[in-house]
Specification:
Blueprint lengths: L7 H7 L1 H9 L3 E2 L4 E2 L8 H6 L2 E6 L1 H18 L3 E5 H4 L10 E7 L5 H12 L3 E6 L5 H5 L2 E4 L12 H21 L4 H22 L2 H11 L4 E6 L2 H17 L2 E6 L16 E6 L5 H13 L3 E7 H7 L5 E5 L8 H18 L18
Parallel strand pairs: 3-4, 3-5, 5-6, 6-7, 8-9, 8-10, 10-11, 11-12
Antiparallel strand pairs: 1-2
Helix pairs in contact: 2-8, 2-9, 4-8, 4-11, 8-9, 8-14, 9-14, 10-14, 11-14
The structure holds fructose -6-phosphate.
């Protein structure tokens, strides 16, 4: 059942190229080079009228929504807010008939997310669910459903569901851009072509797992560590940090690289591991400055970046891990795989039950 893998989590990490292909299948028109989402009830008229989007979810699905925000804002220029589902309901969210609420849930059964969906509908919002389970409660109750085709996810720690949610956000973001005219046909085609390379690039990434394993074994003895990044990288490291905590029980925090100096830099001391994700070239220099701040306090920095920046970054960090390059808005779909492997191998090195971490359940049906 584990298909030759030691754990479901590792199997599911390796299933991501297939999950990407399946989630894209039939949704990219080969002739017109546009996104087609015939399953949506949302009309073009409604899409043109959207004034704001609220993305609501829990845990890893929430983290996918953080990427969703960067994607939708950059492609479609619609303002997006992210909310944790258990908070959303109780903050009297400001919803109008022109608000689109997107709930994200692998299982489609998370109680907090389902309650948030109902709250949004009661306030008059149109609710789109991004879910992996077609017959789930959330899929049934939502006004629209965009299914991820990751296949069943067994490991408690979500991997392929998260990354397939990213694919769904890319498709939906492009679709919004097409309808609202915020990207040209050429720009849309360019992003789609890059998306179609993602499965192969993830395969290439997976081929380098040994280097991540070696690094994971180095950090496994630490009690605390930090992740830093800017822009989409900041969103990705939040997921990497959650994954690491969840299955290795190593305490970590994900920080916006520029925010460390406003307090948390006080925690950086000799030898503390700091993992810097550096894919967003528009802020690369800024991130390097933040890395230098960390190095000056004794932090032991690993940079995860593109090959072409490796030599330059090695001047400021202790180690570099190179990942395949894609467009800035798509980078999460590759970089997160490195962080999933890191969490996996750290948990393995510590001898924990990777697929069934303590205190956690796959589907959280209590509020
Ligand atoms: C972490 C993890 C959880 C879930 C969260 C929401 O690896 O799996 O954080 O993402 O409980 O679950 P769904 O997506 O089923 O609503």
């Amino acid at each position: 059942e584990k298909g030759g893998y030691e754990h479901f989590m590792l199997k599911e990490i390796h299933e991501q190229p297939k999950a990407y292909r399946d989630t894209m299948l039939g949704r990219i028109d080969k002739e017109t080079k546009k996104v087609v989402l015939p399953e949506l009830k949302l009309t073009e008229e409604q899409i043109k009228n959207i004034r704001n989007i609220q993305i609501v979810a829990c845990g890893t699905a929430y983290n996918a929504g953080l990427i969703g925000r960067t994607v939708i804002e950059s492609l479609a220029r619609i303002p997006v807010e992210n909310d944790v589902a258990s908070e959303y309901r109780y903050r009297s969210p400001i919803v109008t008939p022109d608000t689109l609420v997107i709930v994200v849930s692998q299982s489609g059964e998370t109680a907090d997310t389902l309650a948030a969906l109902r709250e949004a509908q009661a306030n008059g919002a149109h609710v789109l669910a991004i879910t992996n389970v077609v017959g789930s409660s959330i899929a049934r109750d939502a006004d629209d459903v965009l299914v991820t085709l990751a296949g069943p996810e067994i490991a408690v720690a979500s991997t392929k569901a998260y990354s397939s949610q990213l694919i769904a956000f890319y498709l939906f973001g492009l679709y919004l851009a097409q309808v609202r005219g915020t990207q040209t046909d050429e720009q849309v085609a360019h992003v789609l072509a890059a998306m179609e390379s993602l499965p192969e690039q993830v395969e290439e990434m997976l081929g380098k797992a040994d280097a991540i394993k070696t690094y994971a074994e180095q950090i496994a003895s630490h009690k605390h560590l930090f992740f830093i990044g800017r822009g989409q990288d900041y969103a990705v490291v939040q997921e990497g940090s959650l994954k690491l905590k969840e299955i290795s029980y190593i305490h970590s925090e994900a920080y916006a690289a520029g925010e460390l100096k406003h307090g948390t830099l006080a925690l950086i001391e000799d030898g503390i591991p700091v993992i810097a994700l550096v894919t967003q070239e528009s802020v690369l220099e800024k991130t390097v400055s933040n890395i230098k701040e960390v190095k000056a306090r004794g932090g032991d920095v690993l940079a995860i970046t593109y090959e072409e920046h490796a030599v330059e970054l090695l001047k400021s960090v202790d180690q570099v891990f190179a990942i395949p390059k894609t467009l800035p808005i798509l980078s999460a779909a590759i970089s997160v795989v490195a962080l999933q492997l890191l969490a996996y191998y750290a948990s393995l090195a510590l001898g924990h039950d990777v697929d069934k971490p303590r205190n956690l359940a796959k589907s959280v049906t209590v509020e």
